[in-house]
Amino acid sequence: MKVDELIESLKRHKEAIKGEMIQTMDFDQLEIDLGEAALVLHSLSEKEGLCEKLLSDFKSEIKRMSLAVSRAKGNLGSCGLVDKLLSSPDLSFEDLLFLKRKIREEFNQSFPSLPQSKVVVDLGRVDTGFWEFKTGFKT
Questions:
Q1: What's the pLDDT at 127?
Q2: What is the pLDDT averaged over residues 62-70?
Q3: Could you state, in order of their start, the residue ranges of all structural domains in the chain?
Q4: Distance of alpha carbon 56 from alpha carbon 127, whole angstroms
Q5: What are the tens digits of pLDDT across the range 70-122?
Q6: How far is CA 119 from its chain centroid?
Q7: Mean pLDDT along residues 17-44
Q8: Which of 18-22, 99-103, 124-128 has the weakest average pLDDT?
Q9: What's the rounded Cα separation, in Å, for the pair 56 and 53?
Q10: d(CA 60, CA 55)
Q11: How far is it, in rounded angstroms, from Cα 21 to Cα 7?
């Protein structure tokens, strides 16, 4: 049974009990529905634990990047601000994604994947005269 169908069935059972229409209740179906509800709640509980672990990992990644950027810039105050934002109960998932994107941009600017000195990638294709200064190069 799908979750929506289970919810509707449990609502019908609730209304029958509330209206004291015990004679019209199907107790066998109520027993089945309650068993399925217990299985669904158990599954949701496991998923909630997994979601909490993922969210914690997500936030710790943002904290680590923020701390690295703050140390690189010599300003640890912004790291404290990010910590306060992450611990805020009003922080929505969209806000969290936005914060991660901004921190990642700053992280990538502070720690580029290629060294900034690698301006000329292939010296063989560019005729700049650099080859004459390379040690061990014979013409």
A1: 54
A2: 92
A3: 3-112
A4: 52
A5: 888 888 777 888 888 899 989 899 999 999 999 999 999 888 877 666 545 55
A6: 35
A7: 89
A8: 124-128
A9: 5
A10: 9
A11: 19
Annotate the chain with three-state secondary structure. CCHHHHHHHHHHHHHHHHCCCHHHCCHHHHHHHHHHHHHHHHHHHHHHHHHHHHHHHHHHHHHHHHHHHHHHHCCCHHHHHHHHHHCCCCCCHHHHHHHHHHHHHHHHHHCCCCCCCCCCCCCCCCCCCHHHHCCCCCC
Identity of the residue numbered 96: L
**Neighbour tally for 36: CB within 10 Å:** 17
Find the radius of gyration of the CA atoms of the chain: 30
- Token representation of residue 110: 């502070």
* Average pLDDT across the chain, whole number: 83
Place of tokens 């990644």: 61
Tokens of 68: 């690295």
Amino acid code (one letter) for 91: L
Tokens 């109520």 correspond to what residue? 30
Residues 86 and 78: their CA atoms lie apart, in Å, by 12
pLDDT at 32: 92
